[in-house]
UniProtKB/TrEMBL annotation:
Bilayer topology term: Multi-pass membrane protein
Highest taxon in the source lineage: Bacteria
Subcellular localization(s) per the UniProt record: Cell membrane
Annotated protein name in UniProt: Tungstate transport system permease protein
Keywords from the UniProt entry: Membrane, Transmembrane, Transmembrane helix, Transport
GO CC terms: plasma membrane
GO BP: transmembrane transport
Domain ABC transmembrane type-1: 26-222
Length: 234
């Protein structure tokens, strides 16, 4: 119990005094996660809208596959990315393994299906309401998708927040492709695992508090978005 209290005290001291290592790891985590989230939204949100308005033979199979990929084990994603980026892999010449770029690639693969699935669910319901109106206006497929994206913005914000929450807490794939290198690829989750193994509970608890705070911010943001959607206000 004494070790826990001492660790918590030191952890809060590090947070209040803006410990350099703590801030460095946190900023790197945010940079990697937000970059991956931005790319995932650029791909996943239009994909969800396209699936909502487009009808083709394998549509159900594509949607089922996309939903199944939400549960894709992160360590498997890490392994596949590692094999592609390793020296003997097809992309090994790029030298991206054990870099933040490799971590971003892994996170994109993990969270894009989640973002696309939530976006599809939201815009599918809207499409049933807008279908006759947009068809009567002779809107192109692109215009239909843009209209759904604009009107479903609150639900799409929830999709983005869910993707952020999934990415910021990821450790398996990040550890495999990033290597947890000090000053280069060490992020919140991998640093917590490392410092706990070392017995440096102060830094581990400090990082853990920050990670929990980020998760709470995401949860509150998602709750706010859904609440404003129910109230019909922005």
């Amino acid at each position: 119990m004494g070790d826990l209290l001492a660790g918590l005290t030191e952890a809060f001291r590090m947070i209040v005094t803006l410990d350099a290592e703590l801030i460095e790891i946190t900023l790197r985590s945010l940079r990697v996660t937000l970059t991956a989230l931005a790319i995932s939204c650029l791909v996943g949100l239009p994909l969800g809208g396209w699936l909502a308005v487009r009808r083709f033979r394998l549509r159900r199979a594509v949607i089922a596959t996309m939903n199944a990929l939400i549960g894709l084990p992160p360590v498997v994603v890490g392994l596949v990315v590692y094999l592609f980026l390793s020296r003997s892999g097809p992309l090994g010449v790029l030298g991206l393994l054990f870099t933040p770029t490799a971590m971003i690639v892994a996170q994109i693969i993990i969270i894009t299906p989640l973002v696309a699935s939530i976006a599809y669910q939201a815009m599918r319901d809207l499409w049933s309401d807008y279908h006759d109106l947009l068809i009567s206006m002779n809107a192109t497929r692109g215009q239909r998708i843009v209209t759904l994206l604009i009107d479903a913005r609150r639900a799409l914000l929830t999709a983005a927040l869910a993707g952020f929450g999934r990415a910021i807490g990821e450790v398996g794939a990040i550890m495999i492709v990033g290597g947890n290198i000090d000053g280069a690829t060490r992020v919140l989750t991998t640093a917590i695992a490392l410092e706990t193994g070392r017995g440096d509970f102060a830094l581990a608890l400090g990082l853990g508090i920050i990670l929990i705070a980020l998760a709470l911010i995401v949860s509150w943001g998602s709750h706010w978005a859904m609440r404003t959607e129910r109230q019909g206000t922005w």
